[in-house]
Design brief:
homodimer; about 150 residues; mainly alpha; cell membrane (chains A, B); CASP-like protein (chains A, B)
């Protein structure tokens, strides 16, 4: 596998990207869910929903990547790779949308201040949005690496 | 030019995509700027900034596309195409972020209601966010069509 593009499906770099996505999206979900008031805001509910989609997707692909690395025989069929690229692309758009929506609502809450945003909750919301941005970045990287690999199959 | 992918750089489909981007982003900017209160909210200022970047980019590329269609000799160099793809990609991410941030603040304003969101302004903000989403969609389409063309050069 030394002639492979690092980061494409079935390599150890891809495994670490997937694990990073799963960890950051779980952290984002946890930071948001630990604040019991998140369901008051549409944007926060949307973030929780999207992260709930990203976690199983990344975790499943991390398992497949781990299996490919151990067995040494990556699963390289154009159809499967195309499904993975499209899935990554859709999930990265949804993650970016959720992260931006959450961040803008947090900035707005900080601007109007007062009763809407107790400091204890606001810092958790901010951490959650930052984790969502990191998760988006890794999803977009996975999607681009796989897209780069597609024409060579 | 009948062997060209419709929508890639230098075709008439690309010209209409670029014109659509310029029209929708101008409409988004106008609907937002006509509300004199937009600078109170960070997300709305961000939307105006991003749309101010998208308008000259789309307009310049629309001119180049129009010239290519009239002359019948599209400018097809991998370096130029790569710059256009990266520019489109960055601007489409920024547009999506701005549109989501604006939409989530509008939804939040509608939820808390009252003095923060007079109906006359809120409908304009909504139209502006919708136009920004349309502009994002066309930018992403341009970027994908050009990316598809790149390996064949």
């Amino acid at each position: 596998m030394d002639d492979e593009l690092p980061g494409s499906f079935g390599t150890s770099a891809s495994l670490s990207l997937r694990l990073g996505q799963a960890i950051f999206s779980s952290a984002s979900l946890l930071f948001m869910s630990l604040c019991v008031e998140f369901y008051n805001y549409t944007a926060f509910c949307y973030l929780v929903t999207v992260m709930g989609l990203v976690i199983p997707w990344s975790f499943t692909l991390a398992l497949v990547d781990g299996y490919s690395v151990i067995v040494g025989c990556p699963l390289r069929q154009p159809g499967i790779l195309l499904i993975i690229i499209i899935g990554d692309w859709v999930l990265s758009i949804l993650s970016l949308a959720a992260a931006c929506a959450t961040a803008s609502v947090i900035i707005f809450l900080l601007e109007i201040g007062g009763a809407y945003c107790p400091p204890k909750f606001c810092s958790r919301y901010q951490l959650s949005a930052a984790m969502a941005f990191l998760s988006w970045f890794l999803s977009a990287a996975s999607s681009l690496f796989n897209l780069w690999l597609l024409p060579s199959l």
